[in-house]
Amino acid sequence: MIRLLDKNVVDKIAAGEVIERPSSVVKELLENSIDAGAKDITVEIKDGGTSFIRVTDNGCGIPKEEVRTAYMRHATSKIENEDDLSRISSLGFRGEALSTIAAVAQTEMITKTSDSLTGIKYVIHGGVEVEYKEVGVPDGTTIVVRNLFFNTPARKKFLKTAMTEGSYINDLVLKLALSHPEISFKFITNGKTNISTSGNGNIKDNIYQLFGRDISNNLMPINYDGDNIKISGYVGKPFISRGNRGFENYFINNRYIKSNIINRAIEEGYKTFVMQHRFPFTVIYIELPKDKIDVNVHPTKMEFKYDNERELFEVITKSVREALLQTDLIPKTNYNENEKKRDKVLGAGADIDKNAPKPVEPFEEKRAGAVSDTIKPSPVDKVKNYGSSYNILNSLKEAEPDEPIYNMLNDKGVAYQATGQGKSEQGNISSKAMEDIQADERRAKAFETYDSNKMPKRPEQMAFENDDFISKQARAKHRLIGQVFGTYWLMEYEDKLYIMDQHAAHEKVNYERLIHNLNTKQVLSQQLMPPMVITVTYAERQAILDNYDLFMKIGYDIVEFGGNEFKINAVPSNLFGLHGREMFMEFVGSLINNAGYMSNDVFVSKLATMACKAAIKGNTPITFQEADALIDELLELENPYTCPHGRPTIISMSQTELDKKFKRIV
To answer: The pTM is what?
Structure first.
């Protein structure tokens, strides 16, 4: 039997197409506010928008006699006939927003036009009118949406956490604020303001207010004016790229859309300028003839069609590349107050990489009582090689007061007793030492719920032609010959020549050290002087907060610094001297790409990347002592044969093979 569906069922089906999550509600309401000519728009949410959404604007408002009509399906003031569909200039036009929202939530509208003395309050729950009355209100419209999906629990259970849903709304408001710099936007979540723009119409000011100084200072203008296509805006210098496409912002006729064609065109323009799997920052405004595009191809109006997509691709690619080629892309260092403080400590003109730890520990006699299967140096060695600013709480707990570690630290004036009342033998501890203790306490707390069983296991040892080569007895007979090509070290043992790749070997040592420190819960951190302050997006901020314990476990010491800024007081010791900001943001980008969760596979991959970047590079001369120490550490590992990426660390060639090469053996 064929029958007509009930109105309520029809409304809920329509709502399922348009209203997928709280951000869908905010998008529809914001588009209405923009179309109403508002110059100030405020969005406020609670619990990620699931329990409360309020959008307030100072637009034209809705006349009293049209309020009820506005909640009917396909009721709109933006188009009148079929011809209007070919030249749409407004963001909203389908006439489904209010009716679909009201069908799955408890809504309340307060609106007033400028020529009316009073406004109207209209309340509708689940498509049923609850209240309609006159009220005294300012010009504009306020819409409150409560308990989204209260009558469709099946849809509600598929929503993500409040933080994740809130990040979707934050990203949406940010995109709309970028697309309309002439409008002042404010976004408030759980009483805290996350976005606030001036609405002065200046695009670069807008970018600064939304993304901070680091990005706004590294932008290049992009311009193109052809017959059918006009392009303007800014593209970022390659070194401010990220690990995901979240910073590729582009707008078609001031409409925020998603397009694989435009994404590919931008990335094609950046080809050879950014590394593989890195994505640029862009804010690009594209103007196309209204009669040649169709934005009605999807209920959410997030997609569009253009009658000459190949031309659009080529123009965008060319414009991006020309913008990149016209500017000096060498990264410049801003000599700010923090850098002046650093130079006072390290010496004027000091290079942080030159003052970083040596790539491998200097060769010295084996420590008394050292365990052969550990790769972690003693506390004394750590102080000698890396300085007294290490957090070595776990080592101090095990040391006796007369051990060298105490005397060495006391000479520096920062020694502290890790147990008891926090006093050292020299009296009250310094404020610097107290900061170290507090950082260690935070790290120790992060380990309270740590489960070493969740960490990736060491790979099984690979078969090797001569396992005797890595034994202690064999190690004493190795003859280190020298370095070739600044990368490879030659060793002779019995009737074989062994060749070690210093980068792959050091990379594997660093990787195993990181895993060992995590498994034994002995994280070593290097304090930064001065601390590093980073500005992040809302999504990045949530990823950091959600995974705060993870960062503490691997050696970071992070504190909130107000707004969307964090202060990094310490980094993992293995990374000291590297580009800490870039490394940290790679971790954060990985979290966002994995929906805020870092699986074991991804975690291992990022540890491998960290180990790689911290390792001594090829074409870098190192001393015999450093090479000998590196070999010692490498051969102590369970699997010294491959780096974390699977490349060999050591290869061998027998004397017989050499004899054949020289025709000694025919």
So the answer is: 0.58
